[in-house]
């Protein structure tokens, strides 16, 4: 009887655990009904500089601390997008720790937007190098591919592909969201390049170009950047989705 009772309780515990786990998982992922495809209507870009404050990010064998490099690229990206007539919101503008859920709150509160999270990579194998771009919602797949293509057009670039992932900041996003890995700080060549402000500016430039082309089509970015041609006015947002704002203020699951 004792043995049977123990077995019975064990099975109940397993069932209870599975039910709780499923309920928790459903709360952690945005449903298809909640997702909004703003890839052709967005007028605002939420730019997320990965890590910050007590969270330094990737181990810097050759490059700078990841949190420093991501903030610099994100700041440059925001400026380039503003020069191309987009509104931008940055999740952080200085060396401060911002919890992942706060980043998610900022991106989801910014209406008619897309979300771009900037990161650098790290590996125990120093020979590994290259760019990677991640997305979760199918609405972000094309944007992810555009960004990857632009980055891989840089001289000497290694294409490590576009992948789906469950990183929290893209998994819980209502609007199209991507996470960009701008090279490996653990690789001697890419780590030293990441120390260069000129190189980080080129990274921001390529990402900005992809974003502008996602919204307005090919061949617009340079003209908009030089001020020769202003991009067309954004299409009117769907009812209830006017321009939004969020306060200016990790790549983990």
Describe the structure.
This protein has a six-stranded mixed beta sheet with strand order 2-1-3-6-4-5, with helices on both faces. The radius of gyration is 20 Å and the shape is globular. With 253 residues, the protein is α/β, with parallel strands linked by helices. 41% of the residues lie in helices and 15% in strands.
Properties at a glance:
6-stranded mixed β-sheet, 15% strand, alpha/beta, disordered N terminus, 253 residues, 2 domains, 6 strands, Aminopeptidase
Summarize the structure in short.
This protein is 41% helix and 15% strand. The chain is of the alpha/beta class. It has 2 domains: 1-29; 44-226, Aminopeptidase, CATH 3.40.630.
Give a short account of the largest sheet: 6 strands, mixed
CATH class placement of the largest domain: Alpha Beta
Number of helices: 8
Q: Please name the CATH topology of the largest domain.
A: Aminopeptidase
Listing every helix as H and every strand as E from the N terminus to the C terminus, the arrangement reads HEHEHEEHEHEHHH
Q: Classify the secondary structure makeup into a structural class.
A: alpha/beta
Number of domains: 2
If you average the pLDDT, what whole number results? 83
Oligomeric composition of the shown chains: single chain
- In whole angstroms, the N-to-C terminal distance is 43 Å
Strand order of the largest sheet: 2-1-3-6-4-5
Cα Rg:
20 Å
Strand content range: 15-25%
CATH-defined architecture of the largest domain:
3-Layer(aba) Sandwich
């Amino acid at each position: 009887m004792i043995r049977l009772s123990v077995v019975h309780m064990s099975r109940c515990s397993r069932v209870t655990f599975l039910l709780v786990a499923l309920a928790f998982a459903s709360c952690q992922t945005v449903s298809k009904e909640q997702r909004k495809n703003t890839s052709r209507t967005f007028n605002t870009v939420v730019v997320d500089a990965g890590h910050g404050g007590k969270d330094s990010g990737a181990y810097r064998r050759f490059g700078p601390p990841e949190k420093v490099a991501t903030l610099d690229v994100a700041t440059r990206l925001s400026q380039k997008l503003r020069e191309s007539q987009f509104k931008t919101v940055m999740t952080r503008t200085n060396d401060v720790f911002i919890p992942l859920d706060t980043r998610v709150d900022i991106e989801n509160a910014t209406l008619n937007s897309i979300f771009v999270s900037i990161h650098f990579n790290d590996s125990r194998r120093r020979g590994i190098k290259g760019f990677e771009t991640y997305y979760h919602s199918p609405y972000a797949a094309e944007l992810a591919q555009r960004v990857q293509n632009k980055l891989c057009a840089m001289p000497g670039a290694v294409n490590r592909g576009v992948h789906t992932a469950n990183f929290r900041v893209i998994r819980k996003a209502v609007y199209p969201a991507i996470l960009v890995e701008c090279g490996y700080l653990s690789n001697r060549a890419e780590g030293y390049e990441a120390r260069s402000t000129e190189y980080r500016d080129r990274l921001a430039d390529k990402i900005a170009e992809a974003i502008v082309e996602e919204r307005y089509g090919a061949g617009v970015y340079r003209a908009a950047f030089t001020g020769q041609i202003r991009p067309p006015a954004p299409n009117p947002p769907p009812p209830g989705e006017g321009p939004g704002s969020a306060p200016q203020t990790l790549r983990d699951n």
